[in-house]
Write a structure and sequence with these properties.
about 575 residues, alpha/beta, Nucleotidyltransferase, domain 5, DHBP synthase, 2 domains, eight-stranded mixed beta sheet, five-stranded mixed beta sheet, 20 helices, globular
């Protein structure tokens, strides 16, 4: 009997947990092809229900009043998302000020009992939706937003006892929590109000830089190294740390209005790079201060984290390198898309008492396709493509990469989370700048300052990375690369000599064989690995998505299952 976790907000997803183990987990965007889908995850639930053991319990994340707004007014949530993506007209200044007044009033969702009551009322409509899927189940459970984040980190990190820290924009009236995980139980010892949000602050800076709120924060992080060191004290007035907690007397809380204020009062005095640098370093210093405070109070030095703030891999690098930190883990789907997993893990432990004490080593929790399904798809496109079956697909693809080719790589079960980790990836030589530039031109359309990332073999990690201690399987932490190998990996190293690697062990043998083939040519087991998707589209899910991407980009080669595919001339 399994527990089904559901998240029906930004990054909608569903997950299945059985006896402490993640059996399946998928994001709705992969099925609908709408990036960061905010709808109800019908397709995700259908996939999990058809492919895994009988589900008899339902865990729903996000129970506060914001759930009430989202579930009864889904169009409001969709419109908000379109605003963040700059796909509809920006509201007038007066309307943003009105929204700010309302947001100031409701942001912290107090009194809690009232807001939870509203949230559960809205969740009854959610229960009706779930019943429409045909699922047979015994009971619904509701899990607080930040408890779901905390559970996702704790039940997958392998640490016990463990200090669990969550930080994001906001959820259920909070922007973060401090928790202790011990013997499978989670105790919350501190919480941070939504009105004092490090995630909102960094998102507003991103928007002030004319990028997309809640999506392009990684670009702000990537832009920062292009500046000279600078401290902008006005940013510290927006948010700071007091007694180990985020503190703010800043009256603007609406993300777009805050972005407008930053643009008008700060950015006009500095360049974009300087603002990005100052914001990145202020975020790092704030979070490090929080870490020091609660490590000191609890005496616990093994830390697991979740929440959108921890999508920032350079922040995570600084945290990992703190001398006080003994061990550090970031849940791979750290944003709201991971809430379905956390909610289900929490309920599964509550019901069954099972606690997986091993750290997860992969996130291959999504759909896979049989030989016949792939071949049937390829036959549909026989007028546009030609293909051949290869029993040596990994070695063959590795040899193509060694010849300077970009490869679309589609294998086995789809990854869960924002990173491509060797099953839905675009691969290229790690030392070939020309391939990197082609990727930007024909598929990704990234700005000049946004780097690509590598997958490297665990056996070669010490040759490539400074201060390497243990493998990070999920591209969730940055490292400094060694200068002596820079020429061999220049396509995956940023201007500040940092890189965000996936360190590969034996968890994906087909992918490992490919990289071992690459190593025979250049002496290092490393490839450029970016997500298999066209600009503004989600990562591909099905063989049909993969062939569509081949036909609609300038890439010439696709390795899918045991088939090598290329476009006809």
């Amino acid at each position: 009997m399994a527990v089904l976790g559901i998240h029906d907000g930004l990054g909608a997803s569903a997950s299945t947990i059985e006896k402490g183990n993640i059996i399946g987990a998928v994001s709705e965007e992969r099925f609908t092809r709408q990036k960061n889908d905010v709808g109800f995850p019908f397709n995700s639930i259908e996939y999990l229900n058809e492919n895994f053991d009988e589900i008899n319990q339902i865990a729903i994340s996000w129970i506060g009043g914001s759930a009430f707004i989202r579930r009864f007014l889904p169009k409001y949530e969709e419109k908000r998302r379109l605003l963040w993506r700059k796909q509809i007209k920006k509201p007038s200044h007066s309307k943003m000020k009105l929204n700010n007044i309302v947001y100031n009033f409701i942001q912290n969702q107090k009194p809690k009992r009232l807001w939870h009551s509203l949230g559960k009322t809205a969740s009854h409509s959610l229960e009706k939706r779930i019943k429409k899927t045909g699922l047979q189940f015994d009971k619904f459970y509701y899990v607080d937003h930040h408890m779901a984040h905390a559970a996702s980190a704790y039940y997958t990190c392998g640490f016990d006892p463990c200090l669990i820290i969550t930080l994001d924009g906001s959820g259920d009236g909070l922007s973060g929590t401090i928790n202790i995980g011990r013997k499978g139980d989670i105790e919350k010892i501190e919480e941070f109000e939504a009105s004092k949000s490090l995630g909102l602050f960094f998102g507003a800076v991103t928007s002030a830089l004319d990028m997309r709120y809640s999506e392009d924060e990684g670009k702000t992080m990537s832009l920062a190294p292009y500046s000279y060191p600078i401290r902008i004290r006005e940013l510290e007035k927006i948010i700071n740390i007091k007694d180990g907690k985020p503190n703010s007397n800043f009256t603007i809380k609406n993300e777009l209005l805050m972005a407008e204020w930053i643009k008008n009062n700060i950015l006009w005095k500095y360049n974009r790079e300087s603002l990005a640098y100052a914001a990145q370093h202020h975020l790092e210093n704030c979070v490090m201060e929080i870490f020091r405070k609660y490590m000191g109070e609890t005496g616990i030095q093994k830390i697991a984290v979740a929440g959108g703030v921890f999508a920032n891999v350079i922040l995570n690098m600084r945290l990992r390198e703190m001398p006080e930190v003994k061990d550090f883990f970031v849940f791979p789907h750290m944003g709201d898309g991971g809430l379905s997993t956390g909610a289900a893990l929490y309920v599964d432990h509550m019901i069954n008492g099972k606690f997986n004490k091993k750290q997860i080593d992969n996130v291959y929790f999504g759909s896979s396709f049989k030989y016949q399904e792939i071949e049937q798809t390829l036959k549909k496109y026989k007028n546009k493509i030609e293909y051949e079956e290869r029993s040596d697909i990994s070695k063959f693809t590795g040899e193509l990469i060694n010849k300077g080719n970009i490869i679309l790589w589609f294998q086995d079960r789809m990854e869960f989370g924002p990173r491509a980790l060797g099953n839905r990836s675009i691969l290229a030589p790690a030392g070939n700048i020309e391939c990197k530039d082609k990727l930007n031109l024909i598929i990704k359309r990234r700005p000049y300052f946004q780097p690509f990332c590598p997958t490297l073999l665990e056996e070669d990690a010490n040759k490539i990375l400074e201060n390497y201690d243990k493998p990070n399987r999920f591209m969730s932490v940055g490292y400094t690369s060694k200068k002596k190998v820079k020429d061999k990996i220049k396509a995956v190293v940023h201007i500040d000599n940092t890189t965000r690697p996936q360190v590969l062990g034996d968890e994906n043998k087909k992918y490992k064989t490919l990289i071992q083939t690459v190593k025979k040519e250049n002496g290092l087991g490393i490839v450029l690995n970016t997500s298999f998707n066209k600009h503004r589209y989600p990562i591909v899910c099905s063989p049909n998505d993969a062939v569509w991407a081949l036909l609609n980009t300038g890439v010439k080669h696709l390795s899918i299952g045991d088939f090598y595919v290329r476009k006809k001339d």
